[in-house]
Specification:
CATH superfamily: Nucleic acid-binding proteins
Number of strands: 6
Number of domains: 1
CATH topology: OB fold (Dihydrolipoamide Acetyltransferase, E2P)
Helix content: under 10%
Largest sheet: 5 strands, mixed, barrel
Number of helices: 1
Strand content: over 45%
Radius of gyration: 16 Å
CATH architecture: Beta Barrel
Structural class: mainly beta
CATH class: Mainly Beta
């Protein structure tokens, strides 16, 4: 049961070119936005699409795969967990950010 605690699986399309940063430690970190679509029919029977945007962060080998093979519009599947972090703005306000930390990526769709 512990393997399904904080477990996220998403399939969607990359919204912008991933940014990959090389850290001083030699590790890589990749960040990108992922759009997931949910289709449904409204009360009038018309097809509607609800799009949700997710911020995805990946480290190490997964970041290297993203750097080589993932670009804007690419359909991908990711497996990971939710992570929330805080930071302080220049005005001194505290902000919270929730991201999906990907530990696996599956390249989908055509080239």
């Amino acid at each position: 049961m512990s393997t399904i605690k904080n477990h996220v699986q998403l399939i969607g399309n990359v919204g912008q070119e991933p940014t990959v940063t090389n850290l001083e430690s030699g590790k890589k970190v990749a960040r990108f936005s992922l759009a997931t679509n949910e289709n449904y029919k409204d009360s009038k029977g018309e097809k509607q699409t609800d799009t949700n945007w997710h911020t995805v962060v990946a480290w190490g080998k997964v970041a290297e795969i993203i750097e080589k093979y993932v670009n804007k519009g690419k359909e991908v599947g990711i497996v990971g967990k939710l992570k929330t972090r805080t930071y302080e703005t220049e005005e001194g306000n505290q902000r919270y950010v929730t991201e999906v930390e990907a530990n696996e990526i599956l390249l989908l769709g055509s080239k």
